Amino acid sequence: MAGPASDQVASVDAPGSGAADGLPWHVWPLGSRLNEAGRIEVGGCDLVELAREFGTPAYVYAEDDIRTRARAFLDAFRARRERFEVVYASKAFPCTAAYELLAAEGLSCDVASGGELHLALRGGFDPSRIYMHGNNKSEAEIAYAVESGVGHIVADSFDELERLERIAPGQRILLRVTPGIKPSTHSYIQTGQIDSKFGFSVEEVPRAIESIRNLELRGLHAHIGSQIFELEPYEKLVEVLARLGDYPLLNLGGGLGIAYTREDEPPSIDEYVDTLVRGAPEHVTVLCEPGRALVGNAGVTIYSVGTVKEIPGVRTYVAVDGGMSDNLRPMLYGSRYEAEIASRPGGADVCTIAGMHCESGDILVRDVGLDSPRPGDILAIPATGAYGHAMANNYNAVPRPPVIFCKDGDARVVVRRETYEDLTRRDV
Ligand SMILES: Cc1ncc(COP(=O)(O)O)c(C=O)c1O
Fold it and tell me: Is the pLDDT of residue 373 over 90?
């Protein structure tokens, strides 16, 4: 049975549309479906077959999902104004293949470290279309950005302005502003409030502008946070920044939320872009920096079930061969996810999906309905495309999973699985 994804752009714009089989398809990559064998297919590839071929855990992406969402952003802007840029916030999924794909789609790129800059250049981004962020860029990172011809550096503090004057004379910059706006999302991913390590307060902006001698100030930037479902904070943001002066560029950051669970209904890309551009004068180039909204729903993590532990009257733990090393978000933010057994989706046996790490808190999903899980089942957790691979680590010396891109039934490994040998590669 097909999910709603066949009608691709429409489902980008109408998340939450349910399918007849009752599965929450809007959290799955576009084009996902149940195949004739009753198994979940992503990018035309059967998840059970992928597990057999590439092993588990593995990050599986539907390539077309990323493309479709990138185009939805571009189309939404194009329909409304001439001057805009869609900037991929690459911290969400810093993977060479993703940089290549999004550079080819015509996006610009946000990097927040020398490492991300290196990957963006490797991935083929034109350096002039790269925006370099960070609240504490080192001198070496600034020098690397200058040597590489990075188009804009986003200045974050008075100390950094002084550093930029010294190391990057003549560089085009934006000023990062902390606009005093607090959207409702997890406090760790709120960034626009006064009490923030990022940027200049609204009161400091005039002094910062006055201090600039030999840099080219091209505009203002603000990022108010992540996984945001409300649009009003963005309306307010445009107002606050517009009051700070008229510049060629207005970068409104990222943050558009995505559906992680069946209850989540974020605004559409179209509604979001409409809000961003509404208050901005025509002559200004409006930029936004989506990360999660481009790649989050494109990715699914597949695991093998190893043990099922039933504690009568208490809980059933279904343990998988990954956990907090491949997805840190549940531990960092208490993030919630859906999960399905790839060969028997649906089901009502309430289970807790536990990771394999030496922490009781290594729980991937709490209280999810599965169909009598057993060892050997392939378990899939959707909406893991953003900040999963990006935050992967080697806790318990567990090798990091591969990244597999799927399209029209073909699967290609774009990042191989780490090996035990890799774990000793940096030893001296
Ligand atoms: C400056 C900046 N821009 C964009 C983003 C992307 O956010 P999201 O993935 O929520 O769209 C972030 C995330 O931390 C950020 O710090």
Answer: yes
Q: How many CA atoms lie within 13 A of 425 on its CB side?
A: 8
Confidence band (pLDDT; 50, 70, 90) for 195?
confident
Q: Domain check: are 395 and 345 in the same one?
A: yes
pLDDT band at 78 (very low <50, low <70, confident <90, very high): very high
* 383 ligand 1 Cβ < 6 A: no
Give the predicted TM-score (pTM) of the model.
0.94
Nearest to 342 by CA among 304, 383, 315: 304
Which CATH number covers residue 395? 2.40.37.10
How many domains are contained in the chain? 2
We report the CATH number of the domain holding residue 245 as 3.20.20.10
My answer on whether 55 and 94 are in the same domain is no
Q: How far is CA 415 from CA 291, 293, 402, 408, in A?
A: 19, 22, 5, 19
pLDDT band at 47; cut points 50, 70, 90: very high
**pLDDT, mean over the chain:** 94
Q: What is the mean pLDDT of residues 157-176?
A: 98
Q: Tell whether ligand 1 has an atom less than 6 A from the beta carbon of residue 41.
A: no
Whether residues 280 and 306 fall in one domain: no
> Which of residues 259, 294, 329 is at a domain's end?
294
Radius of gyration of the chain (CA): 22
**Taking a C-beta distance cutoff of 8 angstroms, is the pair 399, 422 a contact?**
yes
User: For a substitution probing ligand 1, which of 91, 252, 292 has the most ligand atoms within 8 Å of its CB?
Assistant: 91
**Cα(27)–Cα(14) distance, integer angstroms:** 12
| pLDDT value of residue 189 | 65
* Protein residue with its CA nearest to atom 4 in ligand 1: 254
Give the residue numbers marked as catalytic. 358
Residue 414's domain spans which residues? 4-62+298-424
The answer to whether residue 72 sits within a structural domain is: no
Q: Is residue 133 within 6 Å of ligand 1 at its C-beta? A: yes
* Ligand 1 atom nearest to CA at 386: 9
Strands (E) across 125-227 are located at 130-132, 152-155, 172-178, 200-201, 216-221
Write down the pLDDT at residue 12: 53
**Distance from C-alpha of 178 to C-alpha of 196, rounded to nearest angstrom:** 7
Pull the structure tokens for residue 282.
Answer: 């025509």
d(CA 362, CA 326): 11
Q: Report, as an integer, the average pLDDT of 183-204.
A: 80
Boundary (domain end) residue, out of 294, 313, 339: 294
Written as one letter, the residue type at 407 is K
